[in-house]
Amino acid sequence: MNIFDMINADEIGVYYTExxxxxxxxxxxxxxxxxxxxxxxxxxxxxxxxxxxxxxxxEFDTKASIRDRVGVSRVETEMxxxxxAMRIGEKDxxxxxxxxxxxxxxxxxxxxxxxxxxxxxxxxGVTVVAERMRMQLLSAGTIGISAKGVDYDYxxxxxxxxxxxxxxxxxxxxTENSNPVEQILSEMDAAEEATGNRPTRAVCxxxxxxxxxxxxxxxxxxxPVGGLNIIMTDNLLKQYFLDKLGLTVVVYTKKYLLSLGGxxxxxxxxxxxxxxxxxxxxxxxxxTTPEExxxxxxxxxxxxxxxxxxxxxxxxxxxHPVNIQTIVSAICLPSFETIDSIRIMTVAS
Length: 349
What we know:
Layout: H1 3-6, H2 9-20, H3 27-31, E1 34-36, E2 41-47, E3 72-78, E4 81-87, H4 90-102, H5 105-140, E5 142-147, E6 150-155, E7 163-165, H6 180-195, E8 201-204, H7 206-214, H8 216-222, H9 234-245, E9 248-251, E10 255-257, E11 264-266, E12 272-276, E13 284-286, H10 290-295, E14 303-307, E15 311-319, E16 322-334, E17 343-346
Parallel strand pairs: 1-13, 7-17, 8-9
Antiparallel strand pairs: 2-3, 4-16, 5-6, 8-12, 10-11, 12-17, 13-16, 14-15, 15-16
Helix pairs in contact: 4-5
């Protein structure tokens, strides 16, 4: 056995899959489940609303009338491509060779695991990028990503009427005067009126949730006698929204790093409250990367493994210096078939 037998795309793929099986999925992975498609073009049918249209009456023994495609448009775009690589350092390679020669598994195992963990971090980077895009969609209706001089901007054609910005004493940061329940109810009614699909869930950050925990009108509604003295908890407030509005609120607190050593960022921004309907909101599509298309045919010496539906892990040997390079690549973009049924509220500044 040599170093290339132990460190290759297949082994890394198996290691990642076993490790990822114990992880709690991101919220976006649940709302926009992954799907595979060929190529890098993404297209879906977007309806202007979700209301059914009654069939036109007709006479017997006559041809059926042709219905216009009411309020339906085809949305098509090219999915962005992401790729990063890492090499095994020469010191690590020498340590592996010495451990193999000595047949010392106690030394070899942690070195190999560190290399696999580094490759796993690259794969996790694809998961982060996908979640960033999904949460941008939920909080703004658009996607904008910039990295290393490459800009991706996608407008999903959300109607301006689906976005509300509160001002003055209506802002939830004014916990004394604002009336969040009335405002949320108004948006839920508007969504149902426009699409026939009533929101049953909502997403917000911890800061936004904090406004609701401190809101005086909510406290008084929960306890008219001594509302301001109520000891508010997350569970108590979530049950209140479920009973009052039939709304399940998810407080999303997951974060990521823009770069190694950089500051942490929230996936879902502060001061935004998004109402969404039941069920899947769309899909996270993974296209065919160049590595997957070209290398799975065994046309080269590289080895390729596919994880997470469409993330390609590629390894190949470098002749000088003798080394192994690991490349992780993905083409991904979420669709948003239910975009007409959501409401985005900017509740504070």
